[in-house]
Design brief:
Number of strands: 8
Number of helices: 0
Distance between the termini: 14 Å
Radius of gyration: 13 Å
CATH class: Mainly Beta
CATH architecture: Sandwich
Strand content: over 45%
CATH topology: Immunoglobulin-like
Largest sheet: 5 strands, antiparallel
Length: about 90
């Protein structure tokens, strides 16, 4: 996939983003795994078309995704990151 990031404030940082593209046309086995550092838990992870999750974990994975464009927002109080991710179908 293609990844773009935009951040406001700095104590929170994105250490790694792993995108597993969907394996076939019409599939729903895509994943987005995000690892962050900094700040103090809890963190809220938000993804387009997914339920918001608040956790103390520094790594979070969205599973069961279809080929599409996604945004992910990681938030701690007023500090947040927006990430745009484009997931593709493997031929």
């Amino acid at each position: 996939g293609i990844i773009f990031t935009n951040s406001l404030a700095a104590p929170l940082s994105i250490d790694n983003i792993e995108v597993t593209n969907v394996s076939c046309n019409g599939g729903s086995n895509g994943e987005i795994k995000i690892t962050i550092s900094g700040g103090t838990a809890p963190y809220t992870y938000q993804c387009r078309n997914q339920q918001d999750t608040t956790t103390n974990e520094l790594t979070f994975t969205y599973t069961g995704l279809v080929a599409d464009g996604y945004w992910v927002k990681i938030r701690k109080a007023w500090i947040f990151f927006y990430i745009s991710i484009f997931m593709f179908c493997r031929p």
